Amino acid sequence: MSQAAATAPPKTILVALSGLSPAVITETVWALAREVPPILPSRVVALTTVAGRDGLRTQLLHSGTWQRLRDVLRAPAGTLLFGDSGDAIRVFPAPDRATELNDIVTDRDNDAVADFILDNLRQFTEDADTRLVLSVAGGRKTMTALGALCMALLGREQDRLVHVVVNPPFDRPDLEPRFVFPDPAIRSYRLPDGQRHKPTAARIRLCDIPFVRVRNLFAHEYLRLPGAFSATVALANRRLGENLPAPRLLLRPTDKTCRLNDKPVALSPAEFVLCWLLAARRIANQPPFRGQEVLMQAFAEFANNVAAEQMPEIVHHRGPDGAFPGKNDKDDFRKLVSSLRAKFRHAAGNAAAEACLPAGPRGVYALALPPDRVTIKLD
Fold first, then answer.
1. Using CA atoms, how far apart are residues 198 and 190, in angstroms rounded to an integer?
2. Residue 190 within a domain
3. pLDDT value, residue 217
4. What single string gives the DSSP state of each residue in 181-249?
């Protein structure tokens, strides 16, 4: 590869969500071409419904508007490639994948659209030699929201999420002729009341929308990512949870203090002793308890020995909120574990609760925190 080729900017692909007003595509292209330096996408891809495809055909392609835009911008060969083909105009499939969507109405329609947007964006974001610009100015609001979320999942540093706006009255559908870009061949645009406006008065503004890029959370899994939007979102959420610092747990038996991520957790005596047992075992880097009966026996021994020696007033407490489960009362003990997890969740959120007491294999009990994140203060 020559040095010039190696330093050449990546090809720009414009993907536009399009509804019943295809002018958002021509306006976006016009605004990109007016940037410094100017950007002329090599390809334009529209994601739309059946009705949107009809509008693109009649208003942009068959009318000659697209070719006129190319002529005004003096687009070189190999740029602004767009036409009446399935590769350029991609129609959302219906949930059954057997037909195409006329409109986006139901939850299942939304799911199908989300999967389709994700699949199409993935095609371009996997090519390191491209820069993707996604325009979310057209179509229903759900399309805009789903497009932005897909960009958050797949977008790279060089990719852009944009929205285009045009000043009044050029955004009005009753303008004659319909505004699509400031064509110098059109002397003026007329409103129903007779007012006329020159094309030079049009102001098209391209707004870059900042978005969070979470792609690197699972960069090494991209070749085998789940195809469904919901599954990819779930994977991203898991990765986010894994990348958060582990919660910090502090216990002080002398006054029954429990703090999770510096937030107080009000525990009953039985809950505190159970948490203390699991925390002490984690600090000692001992394996989990396997089986509820094993944990119940260890709990009874810990309560009668370690806890009773240091805080007898707690162990002998028999209030309605702190009664200890009997040696053979499995149901009460199961409720005790569930109650401890619920209080962690209420105090510090689901991620912290899952990190402390994960809902792992049945019958396995342990704190999942690193030992250095657990502190027991014996004053």
1. 9
2. no
3. 66
4. S--TT---EE-TTS-EE-GGG--EEEEE------GGGGGGGGGG--SSHHHHHHHHHHHHHHHSPPP-E
Residue-wise pLDDT tens digits, 201-257: 999 999 999 998 888 666 544 444 556 888 888 777 776 766 667 789 999 998 889
- Number of domains the chain contains: 2
Q: Which domain holds residue 351?
A: 249-376
Q: Specify whether 232 is located in the same domain as 256.
A: no
Taking 90 as the threshold, does the pLDDT of residue 309 lie above it? no
Same domain, yes or no: 12 and 157: yes
Residue 265 · residue 343 · CB < 8 Å: yes
Specify if 54 maps to a domain.
yes
In this prediction, residue 1 carries a pLDDT of: 40
Q: Name the nearest CA neighbour of 276 among 248, 252, 292.
A: 252
What radius of gyration do the chain's Cα atoms show? 31
Same domain, 221 and 296: no
* Cβ-proximal residues to 63 (8 Å cutoff; 6+ apart), any chain: none
Same domain, 312 and 279: yes
| pLDDT tens track for 93-127 | 999 989 999 999 999 999 999 999 999 998 898 88
Q: Give the integer Cα–Cα distance in Å for 197 and 85.
A: 35
Q: Which amino acid is at 228?
A: A
Based on the fold, state whether residues 235 and 366 are members of the same structural domain: no
**Same domain, yes or no: 264 and 215:** no
